[in-house]
From TrEMBL:
The chain crosses the membrane at residues 30-53, 126-146, 158-179, 199-232, 244-268, 304-326, 338-354, 383-403. GO terms for biological process: GPI anchor biosynthetic process. It comes from Microterricola viridarii. It is found in: Endoplasmic reticulum membrane. GO terms for molecular function: alpha-1,6-mannosyltransferase activity; GPI mannosyltransferase activity. This is Mannosyltransferase (PIG-V).
């Protein structure tokens, strides 16, 4: 009788308010539970951000003790604001040595132009509207992430995976004027469609995603490996010719979109290497101006940070350890498609990215791995992970976001 009364939404006689609240929570729709987790995480993160903003001194972006929206629009947020107001330069700026300097071509157009369009419609200024767009997209990511995880994990573990995402060390970025939230939402949608084998719907998602954050080539590799895998297991999991052609076509389309922004920059500036030269300008402060040689940046960075032979040896160990991680039982439980994506994106980062303080932000697209941490059901274990996540949020905000003099740790 007590269970029946709970199903009807009434409180069982003699139950305390906490028990009644738990019953209502467990009987609530999945999306409401995800939204509750997301809201609680944003309250915690916003509190941390406001505490840090209250002691932030004047810097290149704000004055002393900035308000929340000013504080949330620092660093790359200012580049996105510049793009929304003035677009991209047709002539690349150069530094004193004649090399291409940092400029807006390093940042893709979907996020700033979306915010700009909403500004025109609503009349709301850039700073609060950019934060709102990021928050809305972050909520969308949390909802889609749950739908991904529920395909491979029990409901409780799927929801805890969402909690790990919402309380993750870099989750403050989900409410800053960065394109990460919007990109992660599009990525979560693309991965869900891939898991459901709804290949035709991937075309528009990939088109927008590839112009939000660099991702087209990594996703093309994931799709290509997906096609190879499905072909290899076609006897136990049929892979009709129509699906094979469609999946291969979307992989090719993703590869094209992976170089679309490079070609757009080349057409606009008249310089075929304008995009790569712009990206290389950000690492010149560390290792000077060098050509991009695939699969060397991690070794260059390790040598700069730790010296030889320790640095390069550590990179080799990291590669081997990461490869082994993908075959552990907890990660294997996530399924082939998510593991293929994580491996493809890792290979992309290894090929082109120069690790420095923003490496943690660049690892965010690997968020499906959080599902592997969500399997154990121990309350102590889960509580500890959330506490660690919040503690690392504060550490990242202090090191990566807060500005202390001539700060060399961009987020």
């Amino acid at each position: 009788m007590q269970h029946a009364s709970a199903e009807r939404g009434t409180e069982p006689r003699g139950s305390n308010p906490l028990t009644a609240l738990r019953v209502r929570y467990r009987l609530s729709p999945w999306w409401l539970r995800v939204m509750a987790v997301f809201l609680l995480s944003r309250i915690v993160t916003t509190t941390l951000v406001l505490i840090l903003a209250s002691v932030q001194l004047a810097n290149p972006w704000t004055g002393d003790h900035p308000d929340y929206f000013s504080f949330a629009n620092m660093w790359d947020g200012r580049w996105y604001q510049i793009i929304s107001g003035w677009g991209y330069p047709s002539e690349l700026p150069v530094d004193a040595t004649g090399h291409v300097a940092e400029n807006a071509w390093a940042f893709m157009p979907v996020y700033p132009l979306l915010v700009r369009g909403l500004m025109e419609v609503t009349g709301i200024p850039w700073a609060p509207l950019a934060v709102f767009v990021s928050l809305a997209a972050a909520l969308g990511t949390a909802l889609l992430f749950y739908r991904m995880m529920i395909r491979v994990l029990p409901a409780g573990s799927a929801l805890f995976a969402v909690a790990l995402f919402c309380f993750a060390p870099l989750s403050p970025l989900l409410q800053f004027a960065y394109a990460e939230s919007l990109y992660l939402m599009l990525l979560a949608l693309a991965l869900l469609l891939l898991m459901e084998r709804r290949y035709a719907l991937l075309f528009p998602v990939i088109a927008v995603m590839a112009l939000t954050r660099p991702s087209g080539l990594a996703f093309a590799l994931a799709l290509g490996l997906h096609v190879v895998y499905r072909f290899a297991v076609r006897r136990r999991d049929p892979f009709p010719a129509r699906e094979a052609v469609l999946a291969a076509s979307v992989a090719l389309f993703s590869a094209v979109m992976g170089v679309a922004w490079l070609l757009a920059a080349a057409v606009a500036t008249g310089d075929l290497s304008s995009y790569t030269d712009t990206e290389l300008s950000w690492r010149s402060a560390y290792i000077g101006h060098q050509e991009l040689v695939p699969f060397t940046p991690w070794f260059q960075s390790a040598d700069w940070w730790l010296g030889s032979p320790l640095g390069p040896a550590l990179v080799v160990l990291l590669i081997v350890g990461f490869a082994a991680l993908l075959f552990t039982p907890a990660v294997r439980r996530l399924g082939v498609d998510l593991r293929i994506w994580v491996a493809s994106y890792a290979l992309y980062l290894l090929a082109v990215f120069f690790p420095q303080s923003s490496v943690f932000r660049l690892l965010m697209p690997m968020f499906p791995l959080l599902g592997a941490l969500a399997v154990p059901r121990s309350r102590v274990y889960r509580g500890a992970l959330l506490v660690i996540g919040v503690a690392l949020q504060w550490g990242w905000l202090l090191i990566g976001w807060g500005v202390d003099g001539l700060d060399w740790t961009p987020p």
